[in-house]
Amino acid sequence: MSSQIDHLLNESRQFPPSPEFVAQSIDDPALYERAAADREGFWADQSRELLHWHKPFTEVLDWTNPPFAKWFGDGELNVAYNCLDRHVEAGIGDRVAIHWEGEPGDSRSITYAELTDEVKRTANVLADLGVGQGDRVAIYLPMIPEAVISMLAVARLGAIHSVVFGGFSADSLRSRIDDAGAKVVITADGGYRKGRVSALKPAVDQSLADRNGEGEQQTVEHVLVVKRGGNDVEWTEGRDIWWHDVVPAASAEHEAQAFGSENPLFILYTSGTTGKPKGILHTSGGYLTQAAYTHKYVFDLHPETDVYWCTADIGWITGHSYVTYGPLANGATQLMYEGTPDAPHPGRWWELIQKYGVTILYTAPTAIRSFMKIGRQVPNQFDLSTLRLLGSVGEPINPEAWMWYREVIGGGQAPIVDTWWQTETGGIMVSPLPGITAAKPGSAQVPLPGISIDVVDEQGNEVESGNGGLLAITKPWPAMLRGVWGDPERFKETYWEKFEEQGFYFAGDGARLDEDGDLWLLGRVDDVMNVSGHRLSTAEIESSLVAHEATAEAAVVGASDETTGQAVVAFVILKESFLAEHTPEGLATQLRTWVGEQIGPIARPRDVYIVGELPKTRSGKIMRRLLRDVAEGREVGDTTTLADTAVMSIISAQVK
Ligand code: 6R9
């Protein structure tokens, strides 16, 4: 089986785009040349070409006060106008902006003209509630069109949204509302998940109740509530307002006012390595430029014919940049789906791709691996032949999953773009351009035109190709974060102190350049282990484990070890068919040997624990920190950001 070599991170297979793909692609090697010759001029061109500026900018980048950048600083624009009105004015108002599908199977298709009207009405409602430039609005909604409408209505007013993922608890919502000092919360009674209504409004009520503690002044004046789940809700008269009572009745006349390029657009909270979540701040002109540019070229967008689907929730940065801002700025037609991939049946995603003729799919490796686990017989029942391009984001994709994605979902033809970026970077930074780059399974490959990235050592010196190092962004980029809300010190400390001398941004990811100059992401640096002085990547060992025929999923941590400094500890979920025929002990031994053979004895896990589940955040990231606690025999730390908080006690029991 070729799968035996699939996992190695020094993959040598290459998949150039087919001649047919190249022939129709908008990707042009001249982009690299132009950006290399004049980086700032390149970004200025992109911005002028992709956006409408009410007042054109004359300055491109102001980096006189690093790390506080200004992009297109003297220009003025309206972000919502760029995503809506101008498309209607250009005569494409009849184009579908969003095909929305609810989990129970209800659906709505909304054109650009309709979406523009809805956003104008909602902006009028918010303005009546006192929302104006600079005010914060928290959005806590399921994946329904009102989520996008709300974001754009806030942006239209020059106000700042803070979207909180609907899966977060009342406590998380409360700390985010308080940190941002939100004036209005937009929520729903509930939404559909896994075949039933999951309530949202009670969490909002709870987050706004009992405010006597320090820093808990009540800033929220109103709660705007969309009726979606039909579940009973409590009501606070004077504070709570039904969306359907006010939005349809509001005027659809609303002239978009222009705001400065650096007007804040949103805050999005992301968990740091320790402590409370950081409110990552993004602003308008630079962010929208990069969101539109990357969405256009990375996805080779043909807005007249493509049906694009990004499966991310709007509660994450991927939902911000590649559900709301990028696609709508580009006048794309997209699919938006409310529910879980397996409701009401495990082929739901593939059924949707068939129903809407989706041409571009952008999703996460964790989803791909869970589909692999179920098997190809499910997607094989559907017509996926419209898919012409696949994307991956959120974590390194192991070559096995990459190959499965290409073969089973992409029909062996569709290019895959593995896109590296972060909440902080605002938009994609490293990715193949699908019409140009010969793809390598497991590598995110090359910085996009206009982006400058290096792999450096702890001191900020470039490392030789082949050696591991730290990913550093060496030049400011348009969609870069502008700060941590309310905490400029934390912004400097977290991202800029490490390479202060060079003025590089520290991403917190390990990386390696291969001899072709392609970039391999090795996971967060806190996930890079040092075993007997050798640097090992969790991603690399996980990839090897997953390539074994018995493994469904694997997570690896570095646990402290008396003799070797750190030791490799693996947590593995086995395929059910193997568990039926082998003992867990036997398989654990086999897997240890396997990794030793595939990567080298140094990588052989000290312990392999066979478990039933892995601890994941709601965005699907494995929380290795908790596994490290188990591996080191400590009490398990804070589990509140897990999708399923019971998982850790089950794992602890299994390990004992
Ligand atoms: C967009 C997003 C950011 C972290 C990042 C890195 C990991 C994201 C990746 C990837 C390898 C990729 N990451 N994409 N690692 N290859 N293609 O996920 O933002 O939630 O802020 O996470 O995710 O470790 O530093 P965010």
UniProtKB/TrEMBL annotation:
Its EC number is 6.2.1.1. ATP binds at residues 394-396, 418-423, 509, 524, 535. Its cofactor is Mg(2+). The keyword Cell division does not apply. The keyword NADP does not apply. Keywords: Acetylation, ATP-binding, Ligase, Magnesium, Metal-binding, Nucleotide-binding. Gene3D superfamilies: 3.30.300.30, N-terminal domain of ligase-like. InterPro entries: Ac_CoA_lig, ACAS_N, AMP-bd_C, AMP-bd_C_sf, AMP-binding_CS, AMP-dep_synth/lig_dom, ANL_N_sf. CoA binds at residues 193-196, 318, 532. Residues 540-621 form the AMP-binding enzyme C-terminal domain. Pfam families: ACAS_N (PF16177), AMP-binding (PF00501), AMP-binding_C (PF13193). Acetylated. Deacetylation by the SIR2-homolog deacetylase activates the enzyme. Residues 93-483 form the AMP-dependent synthetase/ligase domain. It catalyses: acetate + ATP + CoA = acetyl-CoA + AMP + diphosphate. One of its GO terms (biological process) is acetyl-CoA biosynthetic process from acetate. One of its GO terms (molecular function) is metal ion binding. Residues 30-83 form the Acetyl-coenzyme A synthetase N-terminal domain. GO terms for cellular component: cytosol. Signal peptide: none annotated. Transmembrane segments: none annotated. Belongs to the ATP-dependent AMP-binding enzyme family. Catalyzes the conversion of acetate into acetyl-CoA (AcCoA), an essential intermediate at the junction of anabolic and catabolic pathways. AcsA undergoes a two-step reaction. In the first half reaction, AcsA combines acetate with ATP to form acetyl-adenylate (AcAMP) intermediate. In the second half reaction, it can then transfer the acetyl group from AcAMP to the sulfhydryl group of CoA, forming the product AcCoA. This is Acetyl-coenzyme A synthetase. It comes from Microbacterium bovistercoris. The gene is acs.
